[in-house]
Every structure is written in C-alpha cells, then in structure tokens.
Design brief:
The protein has 2 domains: 259 residues, NAD(P)-binding Rossmann-like Domain (Rossmann fold, 3-Layer(aba) Sandwich); 90 residues, Oxidized Rhodanese, domain 1. Helices cover 35% and strands 17% of the residues. The chain contains 16 helices and 13 strands. The strands form 2 sheets. The chain has an 8-stranded mixed β-sheet with strand order 3-2-1-4-5-6-7-8, sandwiched between helices. The chain has a 5-stranded parallel β-sheet with strand order 9-13-12-10-11. Strand 4, helix 7 and strand 5 form a beta-alpha-beta unit. The longest helix has 18 residues. The model has no long low-confidence stretch (mean pLDDT 92).
C-alpha cells in the first residue's frame, strides 16, 4: 500500500489515531480540485500535496505578477510572467513527487464546470470574484460535491464547507450576488499578505477532514477571522428551504455564467485607444486617495466613489465625462449612478487604468 519512502514521509500522520493507515490511504486515493492558484490556492495546494492527496487538480489561467508575490507563496521572483500552472506544477511536484498534479488552464464556466468537477471528490473554492463563486457553488450542488469555501478581503477572512447533501450551500447564506461595484476586489481594496495563508490553511484542513472522516467539518458553520483583532467568530448556518438551488422547490436546474449579474454593464464603455483620441472631456478618477497618489491619468479629477453622490452638482452635464478606476468595476458602477441621476454624456474606461497602462498610456 505504501512504499518505504511514503511511510517515512507520512510517519507523523500514520501515528495519529484519527488518520492512521486508513486515513492516509484515503488521502492517497482522493482527488481534489483547487480552483484558483492564487492567494488561497497556494497554501491549499501546498498542504494537500504535503499531506499526500493522490491527485490534485489546479484550475487557473493567469500569469504570475509581481503584485502576487506578497501573498501567493507558490511563486517567487523567477516566476514573474510565467503561467501560474507551470510554476505551481513544478513546485508541488518538488514538494511531493509521489502525487499527480493535473492542470486546467481555463476559466471555470457554465460549459465546463460539471465535466471538470466530475473527476474530483472535493472542490476547493479559491476564487476572488462573485461570478465564479456562485458558479462553483451551483456546480457543486448539481454534481453533489462538497465545496470548501474561503474568502479574504483586507484583514478579514471567512471559511466554511458548503455541501447541499448534508447542509446549506453558499446561496443559503448569500442568495443573490451583490450589485456591481458594491464590493471591491482585493486588487482594489488590498489584502494583508498573510491572510490567505490563514484561511487557505483552514480550507486545506477541512479538505483533509472531509477525506479522512476525522473531526467535525465546518458544515453549517461560517468561521470568520479578524486579523487586526486576532480573533475568530463562528456563525451557525441553516439550510434555506427557499434556496433557489438546494431548497425544497429549486428554480435553478442548470448552470449559467454570472458575469451579467455580478459584473458591471458593458454599455457605455470606452477603450483605452478611444480615450487617447478624445478631446475636451471631463476625466474623473473614482478610486481612493491612496490609489490616486500612486499614479493617475493626466488631467483627471479625483472624486472617490464614496463621495460621488454628494458631488454630482460639480460634474458638468453639457460635456463628455469619462470615469475610470483601477480595473473598470467601480467606474461602471459610478456610470450607473450618474445615469440614474440623469447624466447622458457619460461613459467609463473599460479595464480601468490597468488597461490604459497596458496600451502604453502614462
């Protein structure tokens, strides 16, 4: 069952009565899909590999960026610009050459989620956006898979296990996605570098518990972590009989892509190239002051999102207005605010200042 090398590697597991040879065998035979090889996916995949999970799938389509390095411990400076999956595969195989690493270099979508999930026993959600989070939840419910959930933002984190067969799903807690622009991403709001290590390690722990049957998993419980206070709180969760996908009369029977629900509306966009050719416009930066101080577009005016409503009277209605933020999410929400207030000649920069920089702007 185990080679001499494996017995040596897993010696501290084998002497645990809650794991032992049987539990380690279950780990060796298990297959886990980790969605996202970023802040959460890094500690999750590393600890699952170290624990001896026999087959680990990684789904990601991004490249390593220098801004990842303060929290994504799978990668180093030498990996900047490299596809995350290539670097992750080498790192995990170096940690444990006895296991199989499978890579899925694609976004999880309504077309591939169910077929991708079918090959795995446990799904670990390491995503950082609401469209994918709801899609993962729904695919887990429809396929009967446990969803080991984690989320991080600034100094706060959450973790739980959503498994419709044995308890609530993510929609029982959050039935609908938030309005576009209401919740900034970690890239827009920041995140403490060690925070994903805390939450990702909890996710890895819960995954190992699910596979081995050890302990009590976070089913029906939401664990909340406050890094500034260094404290944990726990909320009891109940299955919602009215849940749209796991309730008594579900209304969701197939997957859809939630970009339209969670992402900003696409109308009213202007590309970086189009913006560069525009003249006599009012350019408004809706980011926070600390972001503005790190760099902004020439000729722009700073009106942070939280101050936009009370500054509407200072924005001309008889000129073309272009809003921008870091990546286009907040500016699209600001666009809808201005349109609701009766502004007509207003658009926003698609992809934000990042798209402007990629296009060669300064």
């Amino acid at each position: 069952m185990f080679t001499p090398g494996e017995r040596e590697r897993y010696a501290r597991h084998l002497i645990l009565p809650q794991i032992g040879e049987e539990g380690q065998r279950k780990l060796k035979e298990a297959a886990v899909l980790v969605i996202g090889a970023g802040g959460l996916g890094s500690p999750v995949s590393m600890y699952l590999a170290a624990a001896g999970v026999g087959r680990i799938g990684l789904a990601d389509f991004d490249k390593v960026d220098r801004t990842n390095l303060h929290r994504q411990i799978l990668f180093g400076e030498s990996n900047v610009g490299e596809p995350k999956l290539d670097a992750a595969r080498r790192r995990l195989h170096d940690m444990n050459p006895e296991i199989t690493i499978e890579t899925h270099a694609a976004a999880v979508t309504s077309e591939n989620a169910l077929s991708m999930f079918a090959a795995y026993d446990v799904i670990v959600d390491g995503t950082d956006n609401f469209p994918t989070r709801y899609l993962v939840n729904d695919a887990c419910v429809l396929s009967g898979k446990p969803n080991v959930f984690g989320s991080i933002f600034r100094f706060d984190g959450q973790a739980s296990v959503f498994w419709a067969k044995r308890g609530p799903c993510y929609r029982c807690l959050y039935p609908e996605p938030p309005p576009p622009g209401l919740v900034p991403s970690c890239a827009e709001g920041g995140v403490l570098g060690v925070l994903p290590g805390v939450i990702g390690t909890i996710q890895a722990t819960e995954t190992i518990k699910l596979i081995t049957g050890a302990g009590e998993p976070l089913l029906g419980r939401l664990l909340m972590f406050d890094a500034l206070a260094m404290g944990f709180r726990e909320l009891q969760l109940r299955k919602d009989p009215q849940c749209a996908i796991c309730g008594e009369r579900p209304t969701i029977h197939e997957l859809i892509d939630y970009e339209g629900f969670c992402n900003p509306m696409q109308s009213g966009e202007v590309t970086a190239a189009e913006l560069a050719a525009m003249h006599d416009i009012v350019l408004i930066d809706v980011r926070e002051p600390f972001e503005w101080n790190q760099g902004h577009l020439e000729g722009a005016r700073l009106i942070p999102m939280g101050q936009l409503q009370r500054n509407l009277d200072t924005i001309p209605r008889d000129r073309d207005v272009v809003l921008y933020c870091r990546s286009g999410s907040r500016s699209a929400y600001a666009l809808e605010m201005l349109r609701a207030a009766g502004f007509v000649r207003v658009r926003h920069l698609k992809g934000g200042i990042l798209a402007w920089q990629r296009a060669g702007g300064s």
